[in-house]
Amino acid sequence: METNERLHNIRHSAAHVLAQAVLELFPGTKLTIGPVTETGFFYDFLPIKNFKEEDLAVIEQRMREVAEHNYKVVGGQVPKDEARKLYAQNQFKLELIDQIPGDTVGIYHQGDFFDLCKGGHVESLGEVQHFKLTAISGSYWRADRNGIPLQRITGICFATKEDLEGYLKRLEEVQLYDHRRLGKLMDLFSFHDVAPGMPFFHAKGLAIYNKLVDYVRHLRGTQYQEVKTPQIMNESLWKTSGHYDNYQHHMYFTSVEDVSCCVKPMNCPGAILLYQERPHSYRELPLRLAEFGLVHRFELSGVMHGLFRVRAFTQDDSHVFCTFDQIEQEVLSMLTMAETIYTKFGFTKVVMALSTRPEKYIGSLEMWDKVTNALRTALEKRGVPYILQEGEGAFYGPKIELKVHDAMGREWQCGTIQVDSFMPHNFDLEYIDSDQSRKAPVMLHCALYGSIERFLGIVLEHTKGNLPFWLTPVQVRVLCITDAQAGYADTVLQTLRKAGLRAEFDHSGDQISAKIRRAQVEKVPWMVVVGQKEVDQNTVTLRHADGKQEFGLSLDTLVQRGKELNSYE
């Protein structure tokens, strides 16, 4: 904790150093806020004239000059009236001052520079050494797209030179295996201005997408009933569900015959309508409904990022209607399925977090304790370590968050298991219990990929494009050395396809070395090479993506091995 606090203070002070450097280089710039991030810091500015990319190096150099002065960082609480005089020309700081509780605010100084701040700094700026500015981007005051547009300067910062260099090395690797770059190389997906933030899946990308869907269907088996609900539903539904009041700034609206409707941002209200179709007995519970539901959510253009942050995506949703006593077993089953999925994709480190009752909540304490204990018991029975996130549950129920660590050490939250008594109450859901009384079911929301699009992006970067054989869109590419072997090569191709393998034939007239190189770039795991020797012996040469070769394989051996690798088991 002491180390983390020191690093936080270094990054916090680095944001102030950035602000000071910008004011010295660009007088008249207005400061807004500059918080710490997971890897460094950023500061949002309103400049007189927009910053350019080439300004980053100049600003970074001035930051180093400021830090070399080794100014002491001092400050404390001052009366709000005094603070307002300091910021008489800065409407952003004045707004912040007005919103801070109490009669005083924090002001911190370093040399002649001061900033509105609650504290948490290094003693002197000489401790701020290992940083680098990384980007200039657009932002909005208070993240309101209808508000004042600002410019954000982002930087990374670490306590030691070794940490900074290590991060930069990892960053180079991340950029090299960025899923957007791999998506283009492998011909998987693209984005177009006509539909910002909404991916276009190419044939190979859709093949992966469909395999992800099929794999979850395979794991669910007959335990779940798969359903499909409409994309556009009446606005009144979303008011009843609570999404309209709490989520409307992320929703798309349309009108159907002068009736206001919403493009669904969530799948759960549709599942509730299906539950309401007929009365239910306790004997039917748990009732498990699954939907691969396409949802649309508005995101600011500045935060969209490939498949990781989009405006249209598909959730591998399941909604389970059950009794309180069934929560534990259902959650335990979901956790088992989650671990199976993440292991299948090579995620060896999975972190589970239990988020508990927040300060503002609905329902009784008794209900909260009961469902939270059910989640806790399920985690403990599964025998996995978990972390406690006090007060981070939703206002209507606790949840379990499932996070994976990829091959580059990054943590991604994928799955969520959420307990919900709020919507069943809002929609007056009931079941007939054994004593003939009417009771409200509990609703469990579960998505283990989270989003198919985002999970695909994570897996692409985790595997560096070398997807598991069963998931690869093109598993085998048949290559003949000369046209004289084309007939035999086509026989090989058809044999592989009949066996259920996704195989292609490279019809180009290129040299065999060029064909191999192209297949490697496109991350094809198997290259089946056919020359005259293979024709004469009725065999093939198998070349792997890493360059390893196996000679004289029979087609039967190749097919059998492919079938084994293609299995979900």
Shape: globular
SSE class: alpha+beta
CATH class of the largest domain: Alpha Beta
Largest sheet: 8 strands, mixed
Record keyword descriptors for this entry.
569 residues, alpha+beta, Threonyl-tRNA Synthetase, Chain A, domain 2, BirA Bifunctional Protein, domain 2, Rossmann fold, 8-stranded mixed β-sheet, 5-stranded mixed β-sheet
Brief sketch in words of this structure:
The chain has 569 residues and is α+β, with helices and mostly antiparallel strands. Helix content is 37%, strand content 26%.
Task: Describe the 3D structure.
With 569 residues, the chain is an alpha+beta fold. It has three domains: 2-167, 2-Layer Sandwich (Threonyl-tRNA Synthetase, Chain A, domain 2), CATH 3.30.980; 212-229 and 267-463, Bira Bifunctional Protein, Domain 2 (BirA Bifunctional Protein, domain 2, 2-Layer Sandwich), CATH 3.30.930; 476-565, Anticodon-binding domain (Rossmann fold), CATH 3.40.50.800. The chain is built from 18 helices and 27 strands. Strand 4 and strand 5 form a beta hairpin. Helix 1 crosses helix 2. It is globular. The two termini are 43 Å apart.
Set out the fold topology.
Elements: H1 2-25, E1 30-31, E2 40-46, H2 55-68, E3 73-79, H3 80-86, H4 91-99, E4 104-110, E5 113-116, E6 130-140, E7 149-158, H5 161-176, H6 179-185, E8 189-190, E9 200-201, H7 203-220, E10 225-226, E11 232-234, H8 235-241, H9 243-247, E12 252-256, E13 259-263, H10 268-275, E14 287-296, E15 312-322, H11 327-344, E16 349-355, H12 365-382, E17 386-389, E18 399-405, E19 411-420, H13 422-426, E20 431-432, E21 438-439, E22 442-447, H14 452-463, E23 476-480, H15 486-498, E24 503-505, H16 512-521, E25 526-530, H17 532-537, E26 540-544, E27 549-553, H18 555-565
Parallel strand pairs: 10-14, 16-17, 23-24, 23-25
Antiparallel strand pairs: 1-2, 2-7, 3-4, 4-5, 6-7, 8-9, 11-13, 12-13, 14-15, 15-22, 16-18, 18-19, 19-22, 20-21, 25-26, 26-27
Helix pairs in contact: 1-2, 6-14, 11-12
